[in-house]
Design a protein that fits this description.
Number of helices: 3
Order of helices and strands: HEEEHEEHE
Number of strands: 6
Helix content: 10-25%
Strand content: 35-45%
Structural class: alpha+beta
Distance between the termini: 31 Å
């Protein structure tokens, strides 16, 4: 259900949401949100990625743009016990490559991030790998 609420911005860009809506959306201390900020339209979209208690890693990949690549990558995450909470892929125009950004929960993962990185780099369709733990 969509609600509309006018709020006043506090110092340093802080926004205070009405408590009832914040609770419904899971806006609690330690939760993770993705902010999509469009400065041309003066808009911000906020999407909850994870509730508190997760250990998140942002994954950036440059891969070959062909069928089955996402299946290989998500299968590897699953093999390691990493849960995909968010992902987005985009074709890199004219060079037959694609960029993938994902946020994974590694709190139940077997093995280390370095082992995961090595296996991702070992996939024949992966060209670049960046893993960035989120605080």
């Amino acid at each position: 259900m969509r609600h509309y609420e006018i709020v006043r911005i506090r110092e340093n860009g802080k926004v205070e949401l009405p408590r009832d809506y914040a609770y419904e959306l899971g806006i609690v201390e330690g939760a993770y949100f993705l902010l999509e900020i469009d400065t041309d339209l003066n808009e911000v979209h906020m999407e909850r990625i994870a509730l508190p208690g997760k250990k998140l890693v942002e994954v950036e990949l440059i891969v070959e743009d062909k069928p089955g690549v996402l299946a290989k990558i998500s299968g590897l995450f699953g093999k390691h016990g990493a849960n995909i909470l968010f992902s987005e892929a985009e074709e890199l125009e004219g060079i037959e490559l694609a960029g993938i950004v994902a946020v994974i929960d590694v709190s139940g993962m077997s093995g280390t991030l370095e082992e995961l990185r090595a296996e991702l780099e070992g996939l024949d369709v992966v060209r670049e790998v960046t893993l960035r733990p989120l605080e």
